[in-house]
Queue: 4 jobs
Job 1
Amino acid sequence: MFDRAIYNINYKRLMLQHVPTELRKPKLLALITALLSPVVHVYAIFNNYKLEVEYRLKLTPQVCSMQWHLNNLYDYDQRRIYIEDAPRLDTMILRQEVEGREVVLPLEGEEEAEGIMYLEEESLAMTDDFIVVMPLELQGNINELQLRARIDAVKLPTKKYTIRYE
């Protein structure tokens, strides 16, 4: 992304270019190298930060990008982490508080409601948008809070998910 030559600085070559030829003695070059060492250190920190930002900019909320990111972090060799859609409710439930009963409404285009009537607790449990499927070998070997933080950084804010180990 930022492969421009402006970010590639060779400080040793730059030092040699700016010191006149007749003044290029070992002691003077050692002194200039010592004076430049903090700048070289800060430049290395900047380069690492630039690479990290470029990596983060490649990440998107798309499934393929999230799978690529999670596999790079947690399962680089076998790449067994994948993302699947969560199950959806087939019917719409209308709860009548006054009468204490539930009515199943047909979805658009249906004559009669078919399918399962879910209790309120069950329907709330099925509100996830996707499931991150992790290999069973990774359970207990990774920090789940860190995993959730990495997923939260990439996913859309309105999406909900669960982590399942298989």
Note: The chain has a mean pLDDT of 83.
Job 2
Amino acid sequence: MGEMVTIPIEEYKALKEAAEDLADIRASERVKAAVERGDDEYVPAELVNRILAGESPLRVWREHRGLTQLALSDRAGVGRAQIAQIEGGRQSGSIQTLQKLANALRVPIDDLLIEESMGSRILFPEGEPDWFRDELNDLLDGAKIVSYSISGDTYVIHTKQFSKRLPDALYSLLVRAGAKAELVSLDV
């Protein structure tokens, strides 16, 4: 066994706190450096508060960037009318559309979606059959979607507060859609 040192508990707590402070300082320095390189940016509290208050994240980011709907439309290659529909909450936009908008605004696509605005709806890639979209969204109605990702033909949906019938019904739907389905339950 290596060498050991015994110190009073108060000294140990002080050293531990100093180590945590140093880790925070280093993290702050990494963020500052990323901002200086242009790899990251500071987000004003006003922007965050507007989104948390329920405003359209797309509208808030667009206005933060100083863009009109028409200017964003030109940058993203998305119709101005569709941008207005998404900002007004009358349309959700496909994943492809939201990715184009996110790229034009220089933000991750997640910044255009917030948990509360997702509710129990999933945005699907273009080409998914309507019946599948409708049935999956109906199945998840009332479930609180925490996050989801779609990569190729793989759907990962993390929910909480769902009905007891959801796992079996979801499995059945995926099998009917021709998917290789595997449901994994993680009890936390």
Note: The domain at 45-117 is CATH 1.10.260.40 (434 Repressor (Amino-terminal Domain)).
Job 3
Amino acid sequence: MDRTSVARRCFLWMGAAAVVLSAPGSERLPGNGTGPSAVVIGDSQTGAGTWVDRGLAELGYRTVLRGAGGTGYTKASGTTGRYHDALTRKEWLLPEGKPELVVLQGGGNDVGYASDQELVRAAEEMITEMRQTYPLSRLVMVGVISSGPEPGPGGSRHAADRQLASVAGDQGVEFLAVGDWWTRFGLGQFLQPDGRHFTPAGHRAAGRVFARELGFLLAAGAAGPGEPGGP
């Protein structure tokens, strides 16, 4: 495995802001520079303005988002590698230092592409990578948003959510299950015609739910600093 160090693929936290050491140009964290920081790795559900981004902002986090449509733990898009490859090939640069929270989101694009065993191995690989990169940061996995254990595509996505929850449990990582949110929280009404992505109104609605549910999870965490699953 390529153990590319953070020092070779980093940008610097400079007090209240961050400067990216990647071309083209530079990037700064959103907001006024106050509040905790979070690094998020995921798929198209993790871009700017998505429900993941909005929920973290509602909780007061300044976020560094590393997400690309069509990617996953095992799945690459036409322009970006699977999560681990995107990091080790320096397609995505991560911040140096200690963000308060690290979020691994996704798995929907792996549905129908990878076997259960391949998804498990790739998820474990990313957990190991994040723990080595950020040993003192709190790590949370967010599963595959879907409609629940029904027949069809929604059920397949829910099964992937459950598979990732099992990996997280085995690895001692906090996990936010989202595999039934389309139905449980009435978010299915906000889906685009593709049946997987939210409309702008959907991202706003789901962002509020995400903030609430993630807030509950973070408040309930009992592990100490530096321990797996701990803050």
Note: The radius of gyration is 16 Å.
Job 4
Amino acid sequence: MRYTTDLREGGCFHFGDVILAWRVVDGLRGFCAGTASAGIAFTLAFFSIALLTIRRIMRNSEKGLHPMGKQTTGQPLVASTGWRWVGERGLRVETGTMTLARYNLLISKNLTDVEDIIPADGSLLLILRRTARVSSEVRAALSAPLDVAQTAVKGKRHEIVVDYGGAAGPDLPALAKRAGMSVAAYIDCHAATEYTVAFLGFQPGFPYLQGLPLTLQAARRASPRQQVAAGSVAIGGRYTGIYPTGGPGGWHVIGRTDTVLFDPQRAAPALLMPGDRVCFVPA
């Protein structure tokens, strides 16, 4: 029988390990004598316990135990395929191209065990309520097949007026040239698309808008700017986005809007939410 310091299998420090370590010390007593040798014996005991504890942690990690080697919230020992723990209460769920569909399905379930659901690029982060377990309801929602038609996110539609080019969009001419288009054609192409808010990040309220035509896509700038103006409309990789506040930025700036994307004084501080649709209107 083994006893742990916290009486849980997830515990990483076992009294059995201590006993085993002291047996090592007993075996050394025949070779140790005097104060100095006794000190060596205690040192060896300390390192024996440390090594055995590390071994225990590694074994628990291989078993898929909760982070930190113990189950502080009563979570299952082994995570389901497709998700992993992030901290004590977070579940990171791999979603690929179906992030918004899975997000909408989870939101529609009104899961009582889930405090928040945060979309990201190809994944979702579920924050469980304190003391909550990964219930069968949560597991079912994570593994349920997705019907794109039924789970399509029907967010609000926003029209955002943009002043393209000039001082407001210093990178526009270079991007248009790279795409083999005139500046006017580039603007028309960018404004003709209805975008979907994939997720928010980088700054409070910063929308990553998916749907950017392939011909307009461009890698981030080689040298980020130290200051990008608030309201700047920019392109980075396969996304277009809008800087809610001024600050450093590495995306290509093609225009600017006066629309306020984030206001902490509003009931809903962020203007745009995942699943919302955005159309740009040239000023």
Note: Confidence is low (pLDDT under 50) at residues 1-25, 30-35, 56-81.
